[in-house]
Amino acid sequence: MPTPLRETALAAIADRLAAELPDAVLERARRAQVDTDKEAMPRLVLTGTDWEADETAEPGSTHYTLGFVVAGYVRDTTDLGVEQGLSDLHASVVTVLAGWTPAIDGLGEAAEQGAEFRLYDTYESAKPAGEFIARFSMLAIAPLGAPYLP
Amino acid sequence: MSAFASMLAAVHADTNIGTPADFRRPPDPWVPARVVLSRPTDTIGGLGGLGARAGSLAATVLAGDITPLEPQRGDELLLDGVVRRIEDAERDPLGLSWRLVLAEG
Q: Which stretches of chain A sit within 8 Å of chain B by CB?
């Protein structure tokens, strides 16, 4: 059975993150909340989001834009350490993904879309911790009506 | 002493509920006090993603134990030999106790 292009892209992105950022725990398709007190940090969670199709770009092909987010979680001993850790981890993720093109036919370059950051306040977490969500997109091209790996 | 003050004093003195601690405003010396601790674990509103879960730490201290000080951010609480930073302090409406929000390093 052919592999859907969306899954191919997400798997390639996960492989890239795991290979380039070995100090961070990487998960895919996680549904449970992250326990920032108990779980190993830093932690990245990759999740696919939107899937937009454009059938007008090229005859016989569909140009897709895959959206995905990388959430990053950091814990430290100080508030400033969390802020700096989030900045470091986010910059690392962007460096690894933005402008990168998987060596897979049909997949294009990953592009950075933006990010949000949050330090958890002390009413929420006694331990200094926080998260970011970085949004990206990736171009994928497939034959019209067949969004699978060529 | 009002009924509320008596109740709070009894709760803090109860060894099943209250625990000994020391309070100070650095660099002043420690002042002995009794506190009632709570460690709620709650969901943290995320950024549109999974969200997170973490535990907070709060201690209620009798105002009379630390008079004339009014706790504020930067004060410290010594609990079981570990110094906790006070990040926020709220006084109850009657002025009998303070709820201290603590940070753990």
A: 30-37, 45, 47, 69, 71, 73, 77-79, 116-118, 120, 122-129, 131-133
B104 contacts in chain A (CB < 8 Å): 126-127
β-strands A34-35, B52-55 pairing: parallel
Asked if residues A138 and A110 have their Cβ atoms less than 8 Å apart, the reply is yes
In order of A74, A123, B56, the CA distances from B41 in angstroms are: 18, 10, 6
- pLDDT tens per residue across span A77-113: 999 999 999 999 999 999 999 999 999 999 999 999 9
pTM, entire model: 0.89
Q: What b-and-e string marks burial along B27-48, b requiring 16 or more CB atoms within 10 Å of the CB?
A: eeeebebbbbbeeeeeebebbe
In the CATH scheme, what architecture does the domain B3-103 have? Beta Barrel (2.40)
* The architecture CATH gives domain A5-30+38-143: 2-Layer Sandwich (3.30)
Q: d(Cα A39, Cα A28) in Å, to the nearest integer? A: 15
Edge-to-edge strands of the sheet including A34-35?
Answer: A34-35, B52-55, B41-44
